[in-house]
Amino acid sequence: MMKTLITPLLFTLSAALLAAPVQVEDSRGSHSLPDVPQRVAALNWDIAEQVIELGVTPVAMPNIADYTAWVAQPAVPEGVEDIGTRMEPNLERLAQLQPDVIIIASPQIDLVPKLEQIAPVLLYHTYNESHDNAQAAIENFRRMAAALGKEAEAEQRLTAMSQRLNELKAQLSEAYLGQLPRVVAFRFASLTSVYVYGDNSIPQYALAQLGVAPAWPQPATQWGVTQKRLKALGQLPAETVALYYQPFDEEAKLQTSKIWQALPFVRNGGVNSVAPAWNYGGAMSILYNAEVLAEALLAVAPEK
Amino acid sequence: MKLISQSTAGLLLLLAASLIALQAGESLPLADQIGLLDQLWHGVATNLNYNAILFVEGRIPRLLMAMLVGSVLGLVGSLMQQLTQNPLVSPLTLGTASGAWLALVAGSLWFPVLAAQFAAPLAMTGAMLALALTVFIAGLSNLSGLPMVLAGLAVNILFGSIATAMILLNDQYARDLFIWGAGDLEQNGWQLLHWLLPNLLPALLIPAIAPRVLMLLRLGQDNAAARGLTLLPLFLLLLCLGLWSLSAAIAAVGVISFVGLLAPNIARRLGARLPLQELLFSSLLGALLLIATDALAILITELSVNLVPTGVATALIGAPALIYFSRSRLKAKDNLHLELPLSRFRYSLYTPLLLVALLIALLLLTTLLTVETAQLSDWRLQWPSDYSWSLRWPRMLVAIAAGGGTAVAGVLLQRLIYNPLASPDVIGVSAGATLALVAASLFFGINIHQAGPWLAFLGSAIALVMLIALAKRQHFAPSVVVLIGISMTAMIEALVHFAMARADESAFAILAWLAGSTYRVSAQSSVLLAVAVTVIVALVFMLQRWLVLISAGRVFAQARGLSVGYAFATLLGCVALLVALVTSLMGPVAFVGLLAPHIGVMLGARKASQQLLVALLTGANLMLFADLLGQYIVYPAQIAAGIIVAVLGGAYFIFLLIRTRMKS
């Protein structure tokens, strides 16, 4: 009882202390918010993921069921309301939730005029062909943290991430005796075609942090993925390690495919599947991708 | 004897074409290829290097797959065209592809692992169901007419819309399906061929049974009966054989459009006269066509960054080819049409008044209905907040204008081309607008929601000019008008599948837009649409005398001193304008243009002016109701009004047709 009385009181007090408007940065420039926002609406998955990472429970986010299936980490805390799809979030419900700030990514750009009537809008455009997505993810994570008054948490998470990345890098270096193979990371689209993670993709960046170079560099695209024929993987040298993300529903058929078995790196045993991870997320998804990639790489390391 | 020498020549031609096609993008020298083929023939191909394995396990199966699927498409296309005596019938126009597509989308959403394992039987079930539905709608006695094609289109739209709704609500899951949807012939080993071959065995019965039946059919059903032959059982057997082979081919490689439609028409043009001759010729031509386009697709994929599936290549080549052929050869019997049920209502002043009252009631409900929590059960009626109102009124205005406008366009079209199954989404004008927007978004990176009405207008204007230019020679024969629509729609589908397979952000914006949503409409553009639609509809009402005269028959209209060509072009222009306006603002809207005029007739509105008025109001009501339902049915998510309308309209339409047929 006391707590429920005191909490609003504390908020009012802190609000009074911080009454000065807050200057925040987003992908469109500088904005002035009346106060550090408490009620945050996140309209895209990568945004929701980062807000949750920063220790803020958003009041609303889109399509929680599918987020749980595809993004998975971090888990959605109790009390977040589902606001519909990413393309068409329910604006009336959003308005009723009275957010202090609405944070969006590129799919919602054309909704800005309608959203601004509800609350100030911050845009964090992470995935773009013309910049470095991983750097943008980290920068956006910091900017978002600044806007939400969580700089300390952000720096702590980023430091922890680079520590963990160094740990993983050291483990890999040890397992491979300093001779890390080149790696091609991809996801199956069908039995005959794959999406290769190239320049500007989170998996390739995560691998680079682990000290692993790409076996098959691809030009930068918006999400860093390029569609390729499976057979084209045959041009990669036998020392390559191929890592493909789960889930792939036709894995049983793959194992009986002669083309697959004839691929030089498959003959050489340099192949493993990678536990599911979201490849289009925010800063912390670099860590999650690095974890599963490192795990898969360690499993196929040569015997000592 | 002649047939045998022709067949031998055909097989030699096929062999030569195959050898040439094999060279497309192939790194292995020709001598090695022949050596490998020889080893493969004798079953001694072992210890191969990677390129040789690719050739044996990838390229050869792909070539055989193209040959097999192409010949099945040609054979079944010819069989169906001869059975129905309808040169417009083909797998593409019968709804099979969308049936398979829907089954796969639904399967992979609900049972992903199972669906991947049993993709082929699943797709086959969907394709068979869609075909059965199409035949059921048109009725066995209507197979030879345009109604068959239009029924196929209706099934296409219905199934396609449901699939799109599922994809939009679960966008992450359906992504990989698009490669299949785009018709990809690439093979990984022989397993798919091994699956397909036994499933195609029934197709061998077709050339054995069909010729006699087809010959008798040409004499007419009555003549055949007089010779003591009841054709129906054999007819049905042949239809089943054809459908089965077709479904198997679609299940194996996805949507390959146009081959089944074009091959028999080319065969006839090349002089195939006898039924068996046409069947075999079409089969050979189908194989040749698909081998050639597949080689082209391989070459384009080599040259460009993107992966180009064969289905995209066939659609991009087939659509213009079909339009070219339609200029002189393709004519379906246009006079057959579906009987609308007799109205139990009599038209009076109260009919439009009641519809207006219904519209007002819907408007009130849409305005007042509010849900204040995450639970839909907490709904209540109250005056909306300023913000809610600012969102709601443009949507209501657009729904009314779009529904009413499309309905009027539908009445015009049905009366102009004398076919109660015609709908504005059929004639290709809506498709033209859509194609322009999708292409702009794909190739120039323009956001499809911001591309604006001008681009859509340009697209539909080009489609309209093409339509008039092409159709004029044929005196605006409905078949030509419909064909252009079908061609454009198939091209759009191919482009969309291609974009989706590329998996970038614009693809989902395009898909969401294709659903036909009022969600993103601004206040300003809603007012613009309402004003423009009002002006055009007013013009149509002023020109209704023309419509009355043309409805009564062209000769009659001419005799009354009406310049039929001029009036026809003007009224068709109104249709195009209405459709372009609506499409540019909320995306393609299906079925309203088909349903609203029908409901008009069922409510007793027989005269042109009555039907226009009742359809206008019905269309507005329908769309408004669809938008309302779409906003709450999966609350807090939303389903686009265009999809709700297509599903409601399609389901109702099919119910109506079935009921009519039960009674007769």
Topology of this protein?
The complex is a heterodimer of chains A (304) and B (664).
Chain A: H1 2-17, E1 22-26, E2 29-33, E3 40-42, H2 45-53, E4 60-61, H3 64-70, E5 81-82, H4 91-96, E6 101-104, H5 112-116, E7 121-123, H6 133-147, H7 151-175, E8 183-188, E9 193-197, H8 202-209, E10 225-229, E11 241-245, H9 251-256, H10 258-262, H11 264-267, E12 271-274, H12 283-299
Parallel strand pairs in A: 3-6, 4-5, 6-7, 8-11, 11-12
Antiparallel strand pairs in A: 1-2, 8-9, 9-10
Chain B: H1 2-22, H2 30-41, H3 50-84, H4 96-110, H5 112-117, H6 119-138, H7 146-169, H8 177-181, H9 191-200, H10 205-219, H11 221-226, H12 231-253, H13 259-269, H14 275-303, H15 310-326, H16 350-368, E1 369-371, E2 379-381, H17 386-416, H18 429-444, H19 452-472, H20 478-502, H21 505-514, H22 523-542, H23 544-551, H24 554-559, H25 564-586, H26 592-602, H27 608-632, H28 641-663
Antiparallel strand pairs in B: 1-2
Helix pairs in contact in B: 1-14, 3-12, 3-13, 3-14, 4-6, 4-7, 6-7, 6-12, 6-28, 7-28, 9-12, 10-12, 10-14, 13-14, 13-15, 14-15, 15-20, 16-27, 17-22, 17-25, 17-26, 17-27, 18-19, 18-20, 18-21, 18-25, 19-25, 20-21, 22-25, 26-27, 27-28
What does this structure look like?
Chain A: It is found in: Cell envelope. Chain A: This is Iron complex transport system substrate-binding protein. The complex is a heterodimer of chains A (304) and B (664). Chain A has helices at 2-17, 45-53, 64-70, 91-96, 112-116, 133-147, 151-175, 202-209, 251-256, 258-262, 264-267, 283-299, and strands spanning 22-26, 29-33, 40-42, 60-61, 81-82, 101-104, 121-123, 183-188, 193-197, 225-229, 241-245, 271-274. Chain A has 2 domains: 21-125, 3-Layer(aba) Sandwich (Rossmann fold); 165-299, Nitrogenase molybdenum iron protein domain (Rossmann fold). In chain A, helix 8 crosses helix 12 (283-299). In chain A, a hairpin with a 2-residue loop joins strand 1 and strand 2. Chain A has 304 residues and is an alpha/beta fold. Chain A is built from 12 helices and 12 strands. In chain A, 47% of the residues are buried. Chain B has 664 residues and is mostly helical. Chain B folds into 2 domains: 1-327, ABC transporter involved in vitamin B12 uptake, BtuC (Orthogonal Bundle); 350-662, ABC transporter involved in vitamin B12 uptake, BtuC. Helices cover 73% and strands 1% of the residues of chain B. In chain B, strand 1 (369-371) and strand 2 (379-381) form a beta hairpin. Chain B is globular, with a radius of gyration of 26 Å. The two termini of chain B are 48 Å apart. Residues 332-339 of chain B have low confidence and may be disordered. Chains A and B meet through helix 3, strand 5, helix 4, strand 10 and helix 9 of A and helix 3, helix 5, helix 17 and helix 21 of B.
